[in-house]
C-alpha cells in the first residue's frame, strides 16, 4: 500500500486524514460499498421545482418503494425529463457506539433516460449542494456500487440503508468536492434493473442525470460539469465522455476522470479467469449481460454455471466477491463452449462495451490504473488484479490519436483497492484545474498499450 504519510494533491489535510483511516481499516469496502461517496454536514438543499413531489420518511428498498415506479408513460418524454422529486436525508456519519447518525438534506429525482437497446427507461439520481456559496459547478460522481440488486443502489444506501450502511468509508469521495464548492450529483447509473458494467446504458443514465439536475437547479446547459468515477464508476465516466458529443451535445463537460478503468471486457475475462478473488465477477458479468441483451444464456450453461448465476442473482459485489473464487469460465459452460469468447451471442455485447469505440470525447480526460508487481492474473499481465494497464494505456493512446487531451498515470505496486486513494487525489486536482481553466500537459510519456480491436464475428 502507498505510504500514508505521502501528501495527496487535491485534498484537504482533514479530508485526507479521514480517507487514510478508512483505507487502512477497510480498504476493500472503500470500493465496493455503495454509500461511500458523501461529505460532512452541509446546508440543506434549496427547494427544487418538481413535477411531482413526494416526501421521503421511511426508507424503503427501491424494489418496493413507489418513488422508483414511473407514473407516466416514458416514451413521450425527452431524456433528462424529471418524473418525480423528493427531499431525503443523506447520512454523513454514524456513532458506532450509540448508533446516532448525522445527516443533511438532498434531492432525489426519478427521470427519463435510455437503456442499452435504445429504449426509454428511468433512473434515480441524488443531488447534494455544498455549503460553500458561489457560482454553480457540478460534478457527476459515479459510485462503484457494482450490484445486481437494488439494495446497493446509491439513492438507497446514501440514506443509511442496505449494505452501504453509513461508516467512515461513506465519506471519502464527495467530501473534498463539496468542500471546494461543487454540487455533487450521484446517479443510480445502472438503472432500475441494475444492469452492471453496461457502458452505453450507464452513460445515458449519467448524462441524463446531469440534464435533469440542471433542470431541477434552474441551471443553464452552459453550467460547467465534470465526470468522475473509479472501478465500476469508470464505466459511466468513460462512456459518458465518449457519447456526450452525440447524445447530450448541449452539456458543457469540462473534464472526465476515470480510475481502475474497465476498457475491454474481452481482455479482462482471461486475465481474471481462475483467480482466487476476481474470478467471482465472471458469473455476475454473465448475469448482467444476459439480463441486458436478452441472450437466453441458460442454453450455454453447465450445471455449475446455472448454480453460479443463481447464486449471484440480486447480490452486490460485497456479497459475491471471492465467494466462491477460482472460477473458470469453462467450468460454467457446457463442453462445446470452451470459453465465453467462443459463444457467438456474446460477441456483440462484449464489443458493445469497449470503451472508446462508441465515440470520441471532446473534453480533457484523466485515466489512472494500479499495477501490481510482479504481474498478476491468468495469464500474468501488468494490471491491478482486475483491470489491465495495457488496456488503459491503449485507450489513452487512442484518445491522443483522436486529438483528445489526455493524461495517464500508473500507480506502481498498488492493486485495485490500494490505487483508489492516490487516484482520488489526482482526480480531484485534475478537476479543480479543469474548472479553473488552467493549462496542462497532455499526451506525453504515455505507453502505447494494446489496440482495442473488436472481436470478430463467430460463424
From TrEMBL:
Organism: Branchiibius hedensis
Cross-referenced PANTHER family: LIPASE 5, PTHR34853
InterPro entries registered for this protein in UniProt: AB_hydrolase_fold, Lipase_secreted
One Pfam family hit: LIP
Name of the protein this chain belongs to: Secretory lipase
Alphabetical GO biological process terms: lipid catabolic process
GO molecular function per UniProt: triacylglycerol lipase activity
Lineage of producing organism: Bacteria, Bacillati, Actinomycetota, Actinomycetes, Micrococcales
Superkingdom, natural source: Bacteria
Amino acid at each position: 500500500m502507498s505510504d500514508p504519510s505521502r501528501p495527496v494533491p487535491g485534498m484537504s489535510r482533514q479530508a485526507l486524514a479521514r480517507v487514510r483511516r478508512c483505507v487502512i481499516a477497510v480498504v476493500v469496502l472503500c470500493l465496493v460499498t455503495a454509500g461511500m461517496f458523501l461529505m460532512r454536514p452541509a446546508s440543506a438543499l434549496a427547494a427544487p421545482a418538481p413535477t411531482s413531489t413526494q416526501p421521503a420518511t421511511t426508507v424503503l428498498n427501491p424494489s418496493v418503494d413507489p418513488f422508483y415506479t414511473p407514473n407516466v408513460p416514458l416514451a413521450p418524454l425527452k431524456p433528462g425529463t424529471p418524473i418525480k422529486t423528493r427531499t431525503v436525508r443523506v447520512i454523513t456519519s454514524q456513532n458506532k457506539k450509540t448508533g446516532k447518525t448525522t445527516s443533511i438534506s438532498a434531492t432525489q429525482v426519478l427521470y427519463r433516460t435510455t437503456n442499452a437497446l435504445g429504449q426509454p427507461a428511468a433512473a434515480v439520481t441524488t443531488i447534494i449542494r455544498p455549503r460553500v456559496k458561489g457560482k454553480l459547478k457540478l460534478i457527476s460522481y459515479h459510485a462503484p456500487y457494482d450490484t445486481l440488486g437494488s439494495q446497493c443502489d446509491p439513492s438507497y444506501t446514501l440514506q443509511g440503508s442496505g449494505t452501504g450502511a453509513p461508516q467512515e468509508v461513506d465519506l471519502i469521495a464527495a467530501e473534498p468536492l463539496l468542500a471546494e464548492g461543487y454540487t455533487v450529483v450521484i446517479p443510480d447509473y445502472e438503472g432500475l434493473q441494475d444492469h452492471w458494467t453496461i457502458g452505453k446504458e450507464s452513460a445515458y443514465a449519467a448524462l441524463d442525470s446531469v440534464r435533469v439536475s440542471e433542470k431541477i437547479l434552474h441551471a443553464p446547459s452552459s453550467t460547467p460539469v465534470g465526470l468522475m468515477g473509479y472501478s465500476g464508476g469508470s464505466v459511466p465516466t468513460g462512456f459518458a465522455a465518449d457519447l456526450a458529443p452525440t447524445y447530450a451535445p448541449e452539456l458543457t463537460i469540462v473534464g472526465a476522470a476515470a480510475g481502475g478503468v474497465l476498457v475491454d471486457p474481452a481482455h479482462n475475462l482471461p486475465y481474471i479467469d481462475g483467480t482466487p478473488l476476481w474470478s467471482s465477477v465472471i458469473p455476475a458479468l454473465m448475469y448482467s449481460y444476459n439480463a441486458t441483451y436478452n441472450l437466453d444464456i441458460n442454453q450455454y450453461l453447465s450445471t455449475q454455471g446455472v448454480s453460479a448465476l443463481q447464486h449471484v442473482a440480486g447480490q452486490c459485489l460485497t456479497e459475491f466477491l471471492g465467494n466462491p473464487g477460482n472460477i473458470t469460465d469453462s467450468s460454467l459452460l457446457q463442453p462445446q463452449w470452451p470459453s465465453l469468447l467462443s459463444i457467438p451471442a456474446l460477441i456483440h455485447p462484449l464489443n458493445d462495451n469497449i470503451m472508446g469505440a462508441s465515440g470520441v470525447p471532446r473534453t480533457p480526460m484523466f485515466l489512472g490504473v494500479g499495477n501490481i508487481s510482479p504481474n498478476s492474473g491468468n495469464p500474468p499481465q501488468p494490471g491491478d488484479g482486475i483491470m489491465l494497464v495495457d488496456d488503459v494505456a491503449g485507450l489513452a493512446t487512442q484518445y491522443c490519436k483522436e486529438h483528445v487531451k489526455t493524461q495517464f498515470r500508473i500507480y506502481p505496486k498498488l492493486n485495485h483497492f490500494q490505487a483508489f486513494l492516490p487516484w482520488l487525489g489526482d482526480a480531484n486536482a485534475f478537476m479543480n484545474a479543469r474548472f479553473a481553466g488552467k493549462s496542462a500537459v497532455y499526451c506525453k510519456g504515455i505507453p502505447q498499450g494494446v489496440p482495442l480491436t473488436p472481436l470478430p464475428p463467430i460463424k
